[in-house]
Amino acid sequence: MIYDYVITTGKGDKLNLNDYRGRVIMIVNTATGCGFTPQYEPIEQLYRNYHEKGLEILDIPCNQFGGQAPGTDDEIHEFCTLHFNTTFPQMKKADVNGPDELPLYTYLKSQKGFAGFDEHKLKPLLEKMLAEADPEWDKKSDIKWNFTKFVIDRNGQVVARFEPTADMSDVEDFIRSLI
């Protein structure tokens, strides 16, 4: 269950997900130098609009996709607050795939696998790049790129996975349905 996991904040403190029991949680792997980086703005707006109503957002920076989050945890936090005025909690940079992946991501991917990209201007580029790297890419539950979002309901169940190509208004509509 999601509440069994403890992750590390960007400041090095332990964060027990059990502390968020009864809240809606969105967990997103982010990067500061990605074509999807502007999603920080609507993510912050979600946090501002729904945090008092029970939404928590956990940002887990990841440098596994094109080296697009190269900075230290402090540098990433500074970038996000300076450029996007983010106020939601930012975790320590971590891997989301592979042998060193954060155990939380092993769990999330086991609950909601990859179901394809939504229509988006970057969809053809992502699919081509991923297919060149691994012909079986679309059959694996791995995180495919930065800004993949998992939504957990108030009962601790992983109820949705939104790829970076998802329209943020669809993400908001889904979260609003859980609040």
Explain this structure to me?
- There is one protein chain.
- By secondary structure, the protein is of the alpha+beta class.
- It has one domain (2-178): Glutaredoxin (3-Layer(aba) Sandwich), CATH 3.40.30.
- The chain contains 5 helices and 6 strands.
- It has helices spanning 40-50, 73-84, 103-111, 123-133, 168-178, and strands at residues 6-8, 14-16, 24-30, 55-61, 149-152, 158-162.
- The strands form 2 sheets. The protein has a 4-stranded mixed sheet, covered by helices on one side. Strands 1-2 form a two-stranded antiparallel sheet.
- Strand 5 (149-152) and strand 6 form a beta hairpin.
- The longest helix is centred in the middle third of the chain and has 12 residues, at 73-84.
- The protein is globular.
- The protein starts with 5 loop residues before the first strand and ends with a helix.
- The model has no long low-confidence stretch (mean pLDDT 95).
